[in-house]
Amino acid sequence: MRNPFAPGAGQRPPELAGRDKELDAFDIVLERVARGRPERSLVLTGLRGVGKTVLLGEMRSMAQQVGWGTGKIEARPDADLRRPMSAALHRAIRDLAVRHPNPDRVAEVLGVLKAFALRSAPSDAKLRDRWQPGIDVPVRTGRADSGDIEIDLVELFTEVASLAADLEAGVAVFIDEMQDLRPDDVSALCAACHELSQSRAPLVVVGAGLPHLPAVLSASKSYSERLFTYARIGQLDRADADFALLAPAEREGATFSPEALDALFEASSGYPYFVQAYGKAAWDAAPRSPIDVLDVKVAAPEAEAELAVGFFGSRYERATPAEREYLRAMAELAEGRDEPVTTASIAEHLSRRASSLSPARDSLLKKGLVFSAQRGQIAFTVPHFGRYLLNQPG
Questions:
Q1: C-alpha dist (Å) from residue 362 to 85, 232, 355, 370, 372
Q2: Mean pLDDT along residues 40-48
Q3: Once rounded to an integer, what is the mean pLDDT over residues 223-241?
Q4: What's the CATH number where 48 sits?
Q5: What pLDDT was estimated at residue 74?
Q6: CATH code assigned at 297
Q7: Does residue 160 contact residue 92 with C-beta atoms inside 8 Å?
């Protein structure tokens, strides 16, 4: 019952270790934007399980604590940006509205937002097919309703930012799985951020995505390399991984032996999700404190079984037989390590022509199971996935 460890998708761990640099940088962004100083939006990249979603949540809390309006989106490859952006900015405006002295001005901005949202349906769509955004004000036409997402997003961001400026505050829009945005939406988002940075409007976008997200942004707008501040989120180093285990345990009157910490770091490789999974299993297996290396050895199969189902297996099941063959070849070539391999070596390993493997590779890229580390190379988006695959029969 007192087990403090919490492996879960996007669930904040009991100790957010090793992320002070990123949080301090965002604190500076909040201060600078509030003072009208120029500042770039932020993009977090990394493999799955390193805590990007947790960081987004922590940054959102920081923005809310200083009176900003905030909203969050999880991008989906099968959906355009207009509807989720409408919902996110509706939430941000509501955050600001409770302190804004002019209800009429708030209603004007909500009217612009409503006009933007209603363009999510084609103009000839039947009434029953039109999405109703739940904004109870008259539509304000002539702003953010052209139907061109790039024009509309710039105008909408400008309106919402001006509302925040009235309060000497800002707006932060958080976008998870940002690599899944459609190309037109990526282009519009970059254009809007560019426009706002030039006008020093108090609105920032904080995106999170897989390691190839910078390439996605750069392919859309060449200036995106200078538009965002990029932060690569990776494994915890040994000191931070130990602290993520020791601090929560000690608050519950328990601790880990040095040998147990050695074994846990070897098993988790410092990936935050795995640190929590192995820590939770070791706590449950240990009869007393300190938790020792034997407890970790007893607990490891349980942690690995849970990861095999919830973390690895759910992704593996989405792959077709041809895609699984491709994934296994990657694992065999990398010998289970979290390293990229060349597409040419995969073709040679499978005794196939590279062109015949392109459909499987492209499908795996769309499903987010692999990413292009650099031209001609491919890697898993999930740490330890190669090790998992080598332990699968066949």
A1: 28, 24, 11, 9, 10
A2: 93
A3: 90
A4: 3.40.50.300
A5: 94
A6: 1.10.8
A7: yes
Strands 370-371 and 377-380: antiparallel
79 & 166 share domain = yes
pLDDT of residue 394: 62
pTM for this model (two decimals): 0.90
Q: How far apart are CA 159 and CA 157, in angstroms?
A: 5
d(CA 343, CA 361): 9
Q: What percent of the chain has pLDDT over 90?
A: 73
What whole-number distance in Å separates Cα of residue 313 and Cα of residue 310?
A: 6
Structure tokens at 43: 């993009």
The alpha-helical segments, DSSP class H, found in the chain are 20-34, 52-65, 82-97, 103-118, 149-166, 183-199, 213-220, 224-227, 238-251, 258-268, 272-285, 293-307, 314-316, 321-334, 343-350, 354-366, 385-390
Q: Are 124 and 118 in contact (CB under 8 A)?
A: no
269 and 310 co-located in one domain? yes
How many domains would you assign to the chain?
3
What digits encode the pLDDT tens for the residues 169-201? 999 999 999 999 999 999 999 999 998 888 889
pLDDT higher at 373 or 58:
58
Domain boundary among 315, 335, 359: 315
**Considering the chain, what is the average pLDDT of its residues?**
91
- pLDDT value at residue 132: 62
Under 8 Å between Cβ of 66 and 34:
yes
Whole-number Å distance between alpha carbons of 148 and 363? 29
Polymer length in residues for the chain: 394
Q: What's the rounded Cα separation, in Å, for the pair 252 and 265?
A: 21
The structure tokens 């500076």 sit at 28
| Residues 293 and 261 occupy one common structural domain | yes
Q: What is the span of the domain harbouring residue 258?
A: 245-315
pLDDT digits (tens, 9 = 90+) for 75-116: 998 888 999 999 999 999 999 999 999 999 999 999 999 999
Residue 365 identity (one-letter amino acid): L
Instruction: Count Cα atoms within 13 angstroms, Cβ side, for 116.
Output: 31
Predicted pLDDT at 137? 86
Identify whether residues 166 and 211 lie together within a single domain. Answer: yes
| Distance, CA of 150 to CA of 22 (rounded, Å) | 29
